[in-house]
From TrEMBL:
The enzyme's E.C. designation: 2.7.7.6
SUPFAM superfamilies recorded: Sigma2 domain of RNA polymerase sigma factors, Sigma3 and sigma4 domains of RNA polymerase sigma factors
GO molecular function: DNA binding; DNA-directed RNA polymerase activity; sigma factor activity
Domain RNA polymerase sigma factor 70 region 4 type per the UniProt entry, residue ranges: 111-163
Coiled-coil regions, chain positions: none
Record-given protein name: RNA polymerase factor sigma-70
Length: 169
């Protein structure tokens, strides 16, 4: 079954087409969700179900001129996973407050940083970790990687712009 048939069937609320959709796109959505929820594997299945339901309920808002159907489905899964991650982090924060009478923001910050770093390439992630988490200077990193500081500045600037664009959507 091709993509256009699946889209038409979902718009008609045809449950047989829903099964075909799940067979065709659930793997992609599951991979996106698993990537975002590495720390919370216990909620992945629920987020997948929510994502599939969101596609079913919102299929009329899909616009083929803005993105491919595959990317639209992946985006829904990604945002559902991010929402679930935020919810879990708030829950864990409350749990720490109530049970231990402390709030360890470091745990939350590390999880949020990990989530943000998922949007970077492996090389940019390494550069960000060394500069912004480990506190290395551009000079130190330039010597270690045998690249000019200008290249590092450019990579950081471009990665920051990409992150800004990603989170302003």
């Amino acid at each position: 079954m091709n993509e256009k048939e699946i889209i038409r069937g979902l718009k008609r609320k045809d449950e047989r087409i829903l099964s075909a959709f799940i067979e065709e796109y659930a793997g992609l959505m599951k991979n996106v969700i698993s990537d975002r929820l590495k720390v919370f594997p216990n909620i992945r299945e629920e987020v997948l179900n929510d994502s599939i339901f969101a596609v079913w309920e919102n299929i009329n808002s899909y616009n083929e001129k803005k993105s491919s159907f595959k990317n639209w489905c992946a985006s829904i899964a990604r945002y559902k996973a991010i929402d679930a991650l935020r919810k879990e982090l708030r829950h864990k924060s409350c749990e720490l407050d109530e049970n231990l009478h402390i709030k360890d923001d470091r745990i939350l910050n590390l999880l949020l940083i990990e989530e943000i770093f998922n949007y970077l390439s492996a090389e940019d992630k390494m550069i960000f970790e060394k500069i912004f988490l480990e506190g290395r200077t551009y000079d130190e990193l330039s010597n270690e990687l045998s690249v000019s500081k200008d290249i590092l500045y450019s990579r950081v600037k471009r990665a920051r712009k990409n992150l800004k664009d990603e989170f302003e959507r």
